[in-house]
Amino acid sequence: MGDTSIGWTDKTWNPVRGCTVVSAECENCYAMGFAARFSGEGQPYEGLARFSDKKHLPQWTGAVRFVPSMLDQPLRWRRARRIFVNSMSDLFHEKLSNEAIAAVFGVMAAAPQHTFQVLTKRPQRAIEWFSWLDWMGGLGGYVRSHRVGSGGLLPSLFDAVARTEMIQGRRTRSRNDPWASVFNAAAVIGRGPLPNVHIGVSAGTQASVDDFIPKLLQIPASIRFVSAEPLLEEVDLSKWLTRRDRVQMEAFTPEAKAVYGEGRHERDRIVRGVDWVIAGGESGHGARPCDIRWIESVAKQCADAGAPCFVKQLGANPHANIPTIVVGWRPGAPEPDTRLRLKDRAGADPSEWPEALRVQQFPRGGTV
Ligand code: SF4
After folding, report:
1. Cα of 183 to ligand 1 centre, how many Å?
2. Helix or strand holding residue 17 (H, E)
3. What phi and psi, each to the nearest 5 degrees, are found at residue 105?
């Protein structure tokens, strides 16, 4: 059991706090409301969020804060866990420096026992950051080429380690020193994606699906996923899913002829796309409606492609069969009541769901 109610993860880890609204899905952002409640003097979100004067609605202030003191938290969790990175921000926020993001990746490299789940609404910034990292020679190249004292956030973390070593007269880095483990892990990494880091985009509208997923597929990641939550309309993401195609092959090579004989044969071809999909309606006060057929459609698209799907919740405002056209309806007439009344306020209890929605699968790969 983890310390979060989010069903697809075990823990949240927030080395960054604060964000800004970037798409329609952000409108009722849980993090914004939570941060506004704890934004008083001396509180963790001071200066990052507030309640608006007139309507008393939560708002981000626009400030984003990197919190180095939170960096080593996953290194202290020994048991393998799924960890949602930055539930209170976006790791690829434009205001975060490349070095700050690299420091977070350095920690993820040093904790291979965990599976880290990075969810962003800024895939373009993610592409740019990975390009920068590649230009630096990957995480390992970046760490190796930045010597102590050269500046930058990640090197400065290692500076602190080195200074400690000098003071203590140690020649080798201690295995118990968290920064030493980050340094050692990051320094040997090649250019490929970290196997324990899954990267996803939030896309609850067709516009976000069409904009974000092609960008997601340009990001190097061992598992790429989409969180269709809050799902605000029916979405078609079928063409982006990882799927197994049966393809016709000509048996023209001697080896193929030996195996398959003369002529044509069929074989499987894996088309790499989105590896995992999360779906769900919006929760919390003022939740926007979600027709459970939209969730069912996402689950079916995944099943058809053989891609794992995790239905998280039906949301706080679930509906069955919201009509797009009501025959005989006139302005002023009451609209048909399609609302589902569930005992669980977030609609997160699968025992209350129709059978077709009880799908909670995880992607293959990862460490837990
Ligand atoms: S990107 Fe995420 S954390 Fe930032 S405002 Fe949108 S929903 Fe909230």
Report:
1. 30
2. strand 16-17
3. -65, -35
CB 221 within 8 A of CB 232: no
Angle (deg, nearest 10), helices 123-135 and 138-145: 50
Asked if residue 278 has its Cβ within 6 Å of ligand 1, the reply is no
Burial 308-324 (b: 16+ CB within 10 A, else e): bbbbbbbbbbbbeeeee
Contacts of 259 (CB under 8 A, 6+ apart): 251
Q: Which long-range contacts (CB under 8 A, 24 or more apart) does 33-36 make?
A: 33/58, 33/284, 34/88, 35/60, 35/88
| Each residue's pLDDT tens digit, 39-74 | 999 999 999 999 987 778 999 999 999 988 888 889
ipTM: 0.99
| CB of residue 35 inside a 6 A radius of ligand 1 | no
pLDDT in tens, 300-329: 999 999 999 999 999 999 998 766 555 555
Cα R_g (the chain), whole angstroms:
24
